[in-house]
Each structure stands twice: as C-alpha cells, then as structure tokens.
Design goal:
Blueprint (H helix, E strand, L loop, with lengths): L4 E4 L2 E4 L1 H4 L2 E8 L4 H14 L6 E5 L2 E8 L2 E8 L4 E7 L2 H8 L4 E4 L12 H12 L14 E4 L8 E8 L4 E8 L2 E8 L3 E3 L1
Antiparallel strand pairs: 1-2, 3-7, 3-8, 4-7, 5-6, 9-10, 9-13, 10-11, 11-12
C-alpha cells in the first residue's frame, strides 16, 4: 500500500489530503461497458445515498461525422474507450462504492488502489471536446487539387477538384470517364488528397 491509501481492517483508508477537496477521477471499465457502468453507478448513488460525495458520472463522448453508404451521419464516439469519469470527494465509502460497481476494474493511478485525480487542464480539455456540438468540419482542399475518391460509386478513381462548397461540406470533382471529364458532386469526406 502507498501512503495515499492504507489498509485498515480489510477496508481501504484514503489519505486525508485527498479527502478535503472534490476532484475528477478516471475509472477503468471492461471495454464496451462504459454506458452500463455509468448507469450502474448512478443507480448505486441513489440507492446508497452517496449523492453528497459523488456528484457526476460521465462517459466522455464527442460527435463526429462519418460517411456510410454515401450518406453523412453524425455519430457519438467515446473519447477514451474503457474509461468513465467520476466527480467526487474521495472518502473510504465513496472509493468503495465506485470500486465495487459491476464492470469497474479500478481507478486510474499508480495502481488500482491508489486513485490519482485528473488535473484541471485535463478536465477542461475533455469538457471542451465534449461540449463541441458544432459538427461542421473544415474542407481542406483547394480548386485544382488532385484527389482520390475513397467512397461511393466512383471509389478508387482519381479526380480533380473543380468547385468547393464549404457550408455544406461538398466538393465537385472532375472524373475522367470515357476520355472526358465528368462533374461529380461528393461529400468532402469521400475524397482524400493524393
């Protein structure tokens, strides 16, 4: 055991320096069970009346735009798969409740029994990424750029950018078909620079 947490009668005892303030902690979960751990932990908070020590439980996610079958879709992806963040006062009881939640493997720290709080900068960066609901993206092409089509019916064709619509995230490309250039409108995510 470290000086942060000492064993006392089979139960962990948290160092007094961590008890005094509220911090965000990262907990490791079984991969794919992050949402379930969030749900389990929130249920346990209510049933064990720990709302005065554990304030928030979140799975860090951000919105991304993906192309599937030629259609643009906005999806939420986990920023750190296998991890859940908990805003809490670290006490023996709160440590025990979080640590013994189903599908939780432990706190992130020097070892599973020694939780280390996230720094304020890490928390601000994560919250910023989660708060970015603007799913617009930057079209990083110029007229005349040579590109390769990576999705859709013209997949693997080389083309040349002829027009850019930054508002809609679309590009018009010239695809050589039967010896002449044909204009094709594509999502900017369907092409990549050569």
């Amino acid at each position: 055991m470290t000086n942060t947490q000492k064993q006392k009668g089979g139960k962990a005892e948290i160092d007094a320096s961590l008890k005094s303030t509220r911090h965000w902690y990262a907990i490791h979960t079984y991969s794919g069970y992050e949402d379930a751990v969030e749900r389990y932990l929130k249920q346990r908070l209510d049933s064990l009346q720990m709302n005065d020590k554990i304030f928030a439980v979140i799975v860090p996610k951000e919105k991304k735009i993906k192309i599937k079958n030629g259609k643009r879709r906005t999806v939420e992806e986990k920023i750190y798969p296998g991890y859940v963040l908990v805003d809490m006062l670290l006490t023996d009881d709160s440590w025990y409740v979080v640590r013994n939640t189903p599908r939780v493997t432990g706190f992130v720290g020097a070892d599973a029994a020694t939780p280390l709080p996230l720094s304020e900068a890490e928390v601000q960066e994560l919250m910023g990424r989660m708060g970015e609901r603007d799913t617009k993206f930057k079209v990083d092409f110029q007229i005349g750029d040579l590109v390769k089509i990576i999705d859709g019916p013209f997949k693997d064709y080389d083309a040349k950018i002829s027009e850019i619509d930054s508002e809609k995230g679309k590009v018009k490309v010239l695809v050589p078909i039967f010896g002449r250039d044909t204009v094709v409108e594509l999502d900017s995510l369907q092409v990549q620079k050569i």
